[in-house]
Amino acid sequence: MTTPDDARFSPNAATRAKAALKRDPWDLPDVSGLVVGVLGGTGDQGRGLAYRLARAGQKVIIGSRAAERAQTAAGELGLGIEGEENAVCARRSDVVIVAVPWEGHAKTLQALREELAGKLVIDCVNPLGFDKKGAYALKPEEGSAAEQAAALLPESRVTAAFHHLSAVLLQDPETEQIDTDVMVLGESRADTDLVQALAARIPGMRGVFAGRLRNAHQVESLVANLISVNRRYKAHAGLRITDV
């Protein structure tokens, strides 16, 4: 009888593991045909991501609690972007970016559990608080916004990415490219490869694998530091990972 340990260490499993280690990390899939939905697409971050991906040739649908609001934003952005109510946006999309405010994160995802089943979900929400000293990180009970999403969406493939992008640069039509890296986290290499490939569609960007979802808290929290950098230097700072 073959035990689970036998299967894990079988010659076929060992061969697959070695092949995965040897695989070129920059050999990414073609994602040009995927439809990308952006929940919270009428907010600054979601709007900016929708604009950049559509400008790169991706089919994009903006989602909002009110279809009319989403359609208005889509019309302002142009580029073939469509606007729909959140549930319709999720249903029609292959990949769904969650860019809603932290305060509405759990409620939004709970309401869309059925529509997001089987979908690749990219959470880019940063749980932050603000006081007279500036921005500071919050730690959700689940550990991070991404882990909260994974707990609320057990039938979805949850990843985390696009946390450290300037909404100002994303929405600026005069900015031709945004020179920054996107840290991508997730449980499946196939899924994180897809997210990396989406990031690479935007000129100047590069998606870099940064670990599993249990490491999402520090990635989300780093936004508080970038806000401090930007305020001090009047900049739109991003990140670059060296030597990869």
Verbal overview:
It is built from 10 helices and 10 strands. By secondary structure, the protein is an alpha/beta fold. β9 (about 180-185), α9 (about 190-200) and β10 (about 205-210) form a beta-alpha-beta unit. The chain is globular and about 55 Å long. The model has no long low-confidence stretch (mean pLDDT about 95).
Please describe the topology of this protein.
Blueprint: H1 4-8, H2 11-22, E1 35-39, H3 44-55, E2 59-64, H4 67-77, E3 82-85, H5 86-92, E4 95-98, H6 105-111, E5 120-123, E6 128-131, E7 134-137, H7 145-152, E8 157-160, H8 167-171, E9 180-186, H9 189-200, E10 205-209, H10 216-233
Parallel strand pairs: 1-2, 1-4, 2-3, 4-5, 5-8, 9-10
Antiparallel strand pairs: 6-7, 8-9
Total number of strands: 10
Largest sheet geometry: 8 strands, mixed
Q: By helix and strand content, what is the structural category?
A: alpha/beta
Mean pLDDT value: 93
| Rg | 18 Å
- The share of residues in extended strands comes to 15-25%
* Assembly of the depicted chains: single chain
- Shape category: globular
Looking across the biggest beta sheet, what order are the strands in?
3-2-1-4-5-8-9-10
The proportion of residues forming helix, as a percent range, comes to: 25-40%
Could you list the spans in which at least 5 consecutive residues all have pLDDT below 50? none
Write down the secondary-structure element order.
HHEHEHEHEHEEEHEHEHEH
Helices, by number, come to 10
